Each structure stands twice: as structure tokens, then as C-alpha cells.
Amino acid sequence: MTDLRWDEHVARLLDPTDGGCLAEVFIEDTTVADWQALLDLVEEQGWAYEFIVGCFVLPLPRAEAVLSRPAGARCPVLCVRPAPEVCAVFRFLGAEQIGFDVGLGELQGQEQLDVLCGFLTAIGRRLGRPVPMYVEGDTGAPFLGYDAAADRVRALWAPPVD
What global pTM score does this model have? Predict the structure, then answer.
């Protein structure tokens, strides 16, 4: 359960026809240790996942191994399902940023919103930092995210007052 309610405002924020079909999350200034903490969290929570390199599903490696791959090697992808209907896709682009996206079409209703909030909260608590979510392709200002100081997920954008 979460404090964030599926209402007109949140439904608008997560509308896949309004801002694109994906929401992107970028956690800046991370390290290999942060990536490993994330991988450990995925396993500890028992979330379903697939670690994919090219077209091969492989066992989940240590963060150090995947982030020290040779130049030109395929970028691994980690698909995490905190619930069957919600999938987060992580790309191992570098140690300095944890990034993933979530399909907005999967986040339609209070139940899926609660899953998302629980997922963002678990990651934020494990890393001890905010977990901001942005409209696809726009990293200007997050619209929703885990606020580490408040220890909750909240809407970060409000529509202009008419």
C-alpha cells in the first residue's frame, strides 16, 4: 500500500498516450557497489528477472563483472518483474548511473501503482537516495519518484493552474 492514490492527477502523469509509452528512471552518481546492492535486492526480494546478453538468458552475475565488460561488447539488460504485470528494464551502460524504464501501459490502476511505489521505495531505501522518474526522453524535471527525505513516493509535478 502507498500514500500515492490513483486519482485524476496520477492517472494523467502515467497516461501512455500523453507523454510517451515509457517512463525512465535515472539514479545519478552511482558506483559498482550501488549496482551490486541493486542486484542483491532483486534476489532478496524474490522478484522474477531475466539477465539477457544479446539473445541469451544467463545467470545474474556480480555487478563488477558485468560493468567491466570489454569495449564494444553487447550491453546487458536486466528485466525485473516486481509483479507479473509490471516490468522494469535495466541497462548496464556504466557504473555511474543506474537507469531503467517502465512501460506506462502496465501502470494503469491503483494495484499497479502500489507495485511501482513499492519497487521505487525498495530501491531508494537500499541505495539511500532519491529515485526520480522522468517522461521518456525528457530528463529536465522528474514527474514522480521516491523522495528519500520523506521516505515515500510522491508526485513531483503539478499541472499548471488555469
Answer: 0.91
